[in-house]
Amino acid sequence: MAVQELDTLRDQITALDGQLLGLLAQRQQLTNAVAETKIKHHIPVRDQQREEQLLVRLLKQGVEHGLDPHYITQLYHVIIEDSVLNQQALLAERANPDSSAPLNRVAFLGDKGSYSYLATQRYFSRRPGELLEIGCQSFADIVHKVESSEADYAVLPIENTSSGSINEVYDQLQHTRLSIIGELTHPIKHALLVAVDTDISSLKTLYAHPQVFAQCSHFLADLGNIEVKPCDSTSAAMLKVNELNSPHVAAIGSEAGGQLYGLKAIKSNLANQKENHSRFIVVARNRVNVPLQVPAKTTLVMSTVQKPGALVEALLVLKNNNINMTKLESRPITGNPWEEMFYLDVEGNIQDGPMQHALEELKATTRYFKVLGCYPSEEVAPTKVAAVDALSTPQ
């Protein structure tokens, strides 16, 4: 009797889930229509005031239905982020009609199941055309695939919240003619993956990419005497453990990726920082046009003259033009000992007046200067509304 009652309740939940999905699809269609209107009238993608009003109203309605305000806030942060990213993708597609193709050939590090593979899937899920995946064993090989027209795009990890910048990628950017055309930040959730049932105490060897070992150094230190073997990618590590099929070996990678190789997680959240994310860039042979309605980032590379205060002088150009710098990275210049190449990420569109003025000034004050790309920013800051304040606002 209890089982029958439970089945009835579950059937009702399943029916409601179907209705929710249908309503979300209708909402997405309406946000696409909103994007069309914004294209037509040159209206910015984000309207913070409208988003705040929406959340305040929904919080009040949710409480009337007995729903927790934090639950509503989290739910609509996801919905708003999805709406913003879909609108940005549509605007970018309209601004670059020649870039749309029936097939997107994308090079990335590793094979199916690697973090770069998962990031590639996520980024191109919002873009038109089918996806052809091209797994590679090195960053140099990835870049070469695009430079030689064997691939249309490359997805490259450039920094991680635990292990910092990925220097090999910055070194590739220094010598390529490819342009950065997009970015995304992808959550990295490391798990200990095994092919057969075993205990952590039985493990003798771990396989992973060197960046993964760096991001999980605290966990490795706690393990004590265990052999770590670097692999070219997380997918290569998972494939190795699958082939060995031993209770004494494990890989570190994503649980979702491990499932593709028949592996299961025996421990999760291994990274030093629990909020562990990697930022990826997307590069192509040709630049893209970023509509002014879309929040944009620009990545620059420059070297300064050898005199005191040269870097400060260049950075003051950004300050004086009210341009926010979000990243500054230095790398040695090959063949020039003790000289550095500086990489900068700034918020702004190269079509905008202040940015154009700043770029002209930087060209005049630096020894070498190049724009590596201007692209839509996919870091959607959540709309902040204090639940207590929203609920105390008079109706």
Automatic annotation (TrEMBL):
What SUPFAM superfamilies is this protein classified in? ACT-like (SSF55021), Chorismate mutase II (SSF48600), Periplasmic binding protein-like II (SSF53850)
Intracellular or extracellular location(s): Cytoplasm
Q: Which InterPro entries match?
A: ACT-like_dom_sf, ACT_dom, Chor_mutase/pphenate_deHydtase, Chorismate_II_sf, CM_dom_sf, CM_II_prokaryot, CM_P_1, Preph_deHydtase
| Enzymatic reactions | prephenate + H(+) = 3-phenylpyruvate + CO2 + H2O; chorismate = prephenate
Identify the residues that the record assigns to the Chorismate mutase domain, covering every copy. Answer: 1-91
Q: What PROSITE patterns does the entry give?
A: ACT (PS51671), CHORISMATE_MUT_2 (PS51168), PREPHENATE_DEHYDR_2 (PS00858), PREPHENATE_DEHYDR_3 (PS51171)
Provide the alphabetized UniProt keywords: Amino-acid biosynthesis, Aromatic amino acid biosynthesis, Cytoplasm, Isomerase, Lyase, Multifunctional enzyme, Phenylalanine biosynthesis
- Carries keyword Nuclease? no
Q: In which pathway does it act?
A: Amino-acid biosynthesis; L-phenylalanine biosynthesis; phenylpyruvate from prephenate: step 1/1; Metabolic intermediate biosynthesis; prephenate biosynthesis; prephenate from chorismate: step 1/1
Protein name (database record)? Bifunctional chorismate mutase/prephenate dehydratase
Q: Which organism is it from?
A: Fluctibacter halophilus
